[in-house]
Amino acid sequence: MALVEGCRHALEISIPVEEVESETSRVVTDIQKRAKLPGFRPGKVPAALIRKTFAGDVRQKVLEGLVPRHLQKRLEAESLVLVGRPDVGDVHFHDGEPLTFKATFEVEPTVELGEYTDVEVPYHDPEVTDADVDKRLEELREQKADYANVDPRPAENGDYAVLGLESLAGIEGPPIKQDEMVVELGGADTVAGFTENLLGVTPGEEREFDVTYPADYASEKVAGKTVRFRAALKGIRRKELPDLNDEFAQDLGDYRDIGELREAVRRGLFANRQYEAQREAKNRIVEKLVDAHDFAVPDEYVGRQVRNRLEQQLHAMAEQGIDVSKAKIDWEKAMDQQKEPARREVKASLLLSRIADREAIHATQAEVDREVEKIARQRKEPLAAAQRRLEKDGTTGRIAGHIRTEKTLNFLFERARKTAES
What we know:
Helix content is 49%, strand content 19%. It is of the alpha+beta class.
């Protein structure tokens, strides 16, 4: 066996003449049963004629029968786990001689674990102040706000203007036209041009005005452009927030009073912040372990991860409304940029798997079942049908793998040496 580079190996394999001739005879006999040649009944074509007439087919089928079989035997004999498909070359296949070939391939790396407990990581439990709780309660009030129509009067800051809107110039393609849209005058998310031109306008009036959009505006159609609009003010609404009292708490859920709601909000904020803080600490632990363990990873694994990362980025772009087909992407450059982070992610995955093996960490059937039940409820699908579907498409295995990884990360975090963050 020769180590070519990293996880790439090469084997030179020789198959004895006797076995080659035996396999050749088997292939010839198989073709003989089905061959149809002029002057011969089916199954009666002489073997010598089969060998001559179908020489190419015989050669191909002998190689297909012997090469994978002998490669697998050598892999097992040398305790190598194949990754991807092997490259087979330097084939020497002649009558009366051994069949020889060279196979080049990647194998799973041997991960020699160093120290992975007592990793130093900055961490402390998060704090939740009264101001944090107040802010969250205000957000809940905002979610429960009512928007009441007010009698016609000139529009003011803080009003919600109900508009009929149509673009007149400044954009390519079809005009923007909305029969009813609501704009908060003076709102943080409102483009300044709308507020400036609608303040003081009374319902029933129309205005024409220009609105200049920032270059980083979410909609590419108008980003960085000055658009002329015709706007008809149809009405004005004011936001009415509920009082922060016991009745508000009871309307939100199973809370006796506002004090109980405050404590629930505090616990929720703490849980969310703790999760994020621990996630950050776990990521740092993994980064340190990746840095501390030097081993090669298969290019095949890295390539898969590069593709996964690019697919995720394309999906994110599509969700932002970007037409990926029109985006000018240098794919070669994009793939090169992803190789190093992808390689580190593969190393991290292999390390976590190896640690889980050593510590006998695994997903229990009950844990997997709970996740499957959640999916079934979300899809409103019978549990038995969901179990069959998820098992068939491999999702159940991925669920088990995810649970195992999370349990391994928890194990590492619990045994890490936490220090105060600078």
